């Protein structure tokens, strides 16, 4: 089997990171033949929470190297892991994942024949993780769309988390674009370049990881704003995809409401987001409804992120029909 490096990017999540590295060592101990020729590279992207010291105290089956860098964002941290990788194959794992038994065999087998393959596995919410309805629905929908075929041809279904590909292939397309900071779209932009390079992107439902991240509503709104900013960066890089990627009509009632309000100030949109978030909880608690108000809070935060960089894009991003 080809050698493999597991690349983990982490920021201020010591407990998650330790859980993952321990789980990898346990899997390697249980199946040493499958894990022969595997090493781990952890990139700490400015972590100051004791992650480095905690990893220094771990002893296990796998060689683990730790790189600390100034906080530069997920794309930069993953690229640092790629640069440090010694394996022929790189398997990217987010620090809040835990692979299930047998997953590494699927990742390694995918690259024994074809050198132009990226293998993507699902990240299922761990059973004990509670998540609000809108986030859970989005998560399940993405897995459903990827499962419709074993080959992914849409760049917006590609994720680097729990994915593996030849290190040489990733280097040949330039890795992830480090202009993306904050949350979102660096995977899509990378996936677009991979597909254009002729890469076969396969989805393997059995190559699953448990996902332990707890995303609360406040963090979700922050991420949506970062995603809005990254959407503008993405369209500046690839204006040719705007016609097929942006919605041709309003994807939700809240998007239509935001467009008809005509608000273009990021400050005002952020205020709408905060007010809607404040109102959603008591409505849901008292009536069991209010999901549309919560959706408005997320979509307004997303629109604020777009407006931070380019207000003129708002109508198209919100889905105003041509």
Which stretches are low in confidence, meaning pLDDT under 50 for 5 or more residues running?
Answer: none
| Structural class computed from helices and strand pairing | alpha/beta
CATH architecture descriptor of the largest domain: Alpha-Beta Complex
CATH homologous superfamily heading of the largest domain: Spore Coat Polysaccharide Biosynthesis Protein SpsA, Chain A
Structural summary, described in words:
The chain has helices spanning 14-30, 51-56, 74-84, 103-109, 133-147, 167-172, 186-196, 217-237, 242-245, 253-261, 266-287, 291-309, 314-318, and strands spanning 4-10, 38-45, 64-69, 89-94, 97-99, 117-120, 123-125, 151-152, 163-166, 200-203, 209-211. It has 322 residues and is α/β, with parallel strands linked by helices. The protein has an 8-stranded mixed beta sheet with strand order 3-2-1-4-9-6-10-8. Strands 5-11-7 form a 3-stranded mixed beta sheet. Strand 2 (38-45), helix 2 (51-56) and strand 3 form a beta-alpha-beta unit. The model has no long low-confidence stretch (mean pLDDT 91).
Task: Set down the secondary structure blueprint.
Layout: E1 4-10, H1 14-30, E2 38-45, H2 51-56, E3 64-69, H3 74-84, E4 89-94, E5 97-99, H4 103-109, E6 117-120, E7 123-125, H5 133-147, E8 151-152, E9 163-166, H6 167-172, H7 186-196, E10 200-203, E11 209-211, H8 217-237, H9 242-245, H10 253-261, H11 266-287, H12 291-309, H13 314-318
Parallel strand pairs: 1-2, 1-4, 2-3, 6-10, 7-11
Antiparallel strand pairs: 4-9, 5-11, 6-9, 8-10
List keywords for this structure.
322 residues
